[in-house]
Input
Amino acid sequence: MSGPAGTALVNGAPFALPAPLPVDDVVRRFAPGAVRDGVARGVAVAVGDAVVPRSAWSTTLVRPGDVVEVVGAVQGG
Output
């Protein structure tokens, strides 16, 4: 991966990017509690206004200036 270091917004907070990172790496760094056995569970991700399918997490890059929402599922009623 190459590109300038910068910052994305993840759930409204600045998130330092040493370089563009795949969505799955951002989830591992931002929400480590959701990762079990190396796989994020109960999490959905949007970059900009688009939900990123889990099958595309490893190939969708988060770049400086991107706005990312990481949402966790909550059980209950």
Q: What stands out?
A: The chain has one domain: 6-61. The chain has a mean pLDDT of 86. DSSP finds one helix and nine strands in the chain.
